[in-house]
Fold:
Amino acid sequence: MAETIEWQDFEKIELRVGTVVAARVNEKAKKPAYVLEVDLGELGVKTSSAQITVHYTPESLVGRQVLCVCNFAPKRIAGVVSEVLVTGFADASGAIVLAGVERAVPNGARLH
Structure:
């Protein structure tokens, strides 16, 4: 189990919901990945490189709300500047299943 943190530590992580507005295969990635454009409301549209090709197609991702970590420093991944981390859980085989919301919420809404 991970070490216990204080509430202030949790508040440092900016977890927000956004809607995928575009998705395409990242041709330069060593492991299969998509480049996602995620509308995060007041934060604007941000790019993410995500290894989520087992359970999703680019077409199935457009319009889907996803939970993103928005305050990591941008990172260059296979030719793409990834500005946010799209979150998910590993299934029994290790493939990622996206974290999301039960009902639609405004883009940019912060997780409480």
